[in-house]
Amino acid sequence: MTIKQALISVSDKTGVLEFAQGLAAQGVKLLSTGGTAKMLRDAGLSVTEIGDYTGFPEMLDGRVKTLHPKVHGGILARRDLPEHLATIEAHGIPMIDLVCVNLYPFAATIAKAGVTLEDAIENIDIGGPAMVRSSAKNYNGVAIVTDPEDYAPLLAEMKANGGALQLATRFGLAKKAFTHTARYDSMIANWLTGLEEGAEAKPAEAAPVPAIFPAKLQLAFDRTEILRYGENSHQSAAFYREPNPVAGSIAAYTQLQGKELSYNNIADSDAAWECVKSFDAPACVIVKHANPCGVAVDGTLLGAYEKSFKTDSTSAFGGIIAFNGEVGIDVVNAMNERKHFVEVLIAPSFTAEAKAALAAKQNLRVLVVPISRVLNTLEFKRVGGGLLVQTPDDFTAQASGLKIVTKVQPTAQQIEDLLFAERVAKFVKSNAIVFCGNGMTLGVGAGQMSRVDSTKIASIKAQHAGLDLAGSVVASDAFFPFRDGVDVLAAAGAKAVIQPGGSMRDEEVIAAADEHGLAMVFTGARHFRH
Q1: pTM of the predicted model, to two decimals?
Q2: Catalytic option among 4, 176, 259, 289
Q3: Do residues 351 and 415 both lie within one domain?
């Protein structure tokens, strides 16, 4: 299909002048609206303004521009139906072969502080989506362009094909266009259904308060790859990314080398990355089956790695390792000396020497992810027939907020270790018990139905690793329902405990701590992780 006439009407004018110039150079007649028409004309292009084309001026403050039979007839007429061709000829409607449209900046508008309902409503595009949908529906005869990234490839294809665009190209543009309008409408629906009750009746200058959870939730994701399989080899799987993922999230990764990521690789990498980026000091997190099996902070990343590996060298085999700073050759050499088999290695950057050394491990997946502590606005979990939605767990205990509930007062070093332990426990599956000391995990008990069993497992893990729990501290992700957990950790050698508190048996648990000479602090917030 040869492009003879194009309609250009864009809000985002990035690259559109060059695109229009490229079309004109190939003999394409240009139609345009308002500001776009002026820009093209000022650049010396011959362009017909839409009001002159239809015989009706833009009106109602620009609300009505392209909503006209001469526009939509020229777009929607089927080129393969004689009756359609006869109809538009009878009404003097020329064909429009290419439509270049992007929509009013609704997203940018609602992102502004203090945006009013009126401002938001006025930035809901009407004519634009109508043209996009009309063009996409009639992809057999019309090319619809909504993405500036497509400008150059389309001009190149037209030049190579005598001004024509292939059917496959037009169909691909149509799919992108319908996705574009669907997401635009979803964004509007999410914002409007998320407003406080009675927002429409408030004064025009008042900024409505958005609710956390929209009454109707529309989600959008882009498939980035088909995975080899899911959690198990008999399951199919794919990875989808949000159109604009949160900065510093695992979805923003760049893979430097290695095999394709698997379903479990991505899930475990997310667990490791979310944990390691929560620390300010140089940190290393080793994850196995979604649980941290070794976490440490130190003055250097090498020191953090050495300490985290000691926690559970057995589980570290085949795990995921994440660092919160630039990985150098010293860290890579330490991994090689241990013959430490790793599935995925993650860091915000790697030195040139480290990259060169890692390149020898062709199967090792190496990911670069920018550091950012920005959290997702909402978290999702699929259940049968529905979706659980919650705000992220953004609570991290601070020394000033701790409540000391025992006779024994924790030392300054114990406070530091307790806060470290609490931060690790936040990323361990419930029930979670974490023994720590000197900025490293000593034993991790995860995912047990009984808290006392998690405590025993954490203690056993430390014994197997040859780590001494004498003088250690312990974090529990939730309150101790009975004193038995305290009895076990005291017997293992712990001297201080951090927990949320809130059990009906808190007094019994505190009494047990006093009996064992433990220091115990409450945070007031639990960290269940399911």
Answers
A1: 0.83
A2: 289
A3: no
Spot the catalytic one: 137, 176, 259, 361.
137
* Cis-peptide, bond into residue 431, ω within 30° of zero: yes
Q: What value does the mean pLDDT take over residues 410-438?
A: 96
In angstroms, how far is the first alpha carbon of the chain from the final one? Answer: 55
Q: Is the same domain home to 362 and 430? A: no
Give the span between the Cα atoms of 194 and 389, in whole angstroms.
14
| pLDDT given at position 115 | 78
| Total domains in the fold of the chain | 3
What's the average model confidence in pLDDT over 505-515? 96
- Active-site residue 137, yes or no? yes
| Percent of the chain's residues with pLDDT above 70 | 95
Count CA atoms within 13 Å of residue 149 on its CB side.
2
403 counts as catalytic = no
Q: Dihedral sign, CA of 460, 465, 470, 472?
A: negative
In this structure, are 55 and 184 located in the same domain? yes
CATH code, domain with 325: 3.40.140.20
How far is it, in rounded angstroms, from Cα 79 to Cα 102?
Answer: 25
Residue 522 buriedness (CB in 10 A; 0-12 / 13-18 / 19+): buried
pLDDT for position 409: 96
pLDDT for residue 206 is more than 60: yes
How many whole angstroms separate alpha carbon 242 and alpha carbon 363?
27
**CATH number of 14's domain:** 3.40.50.1380
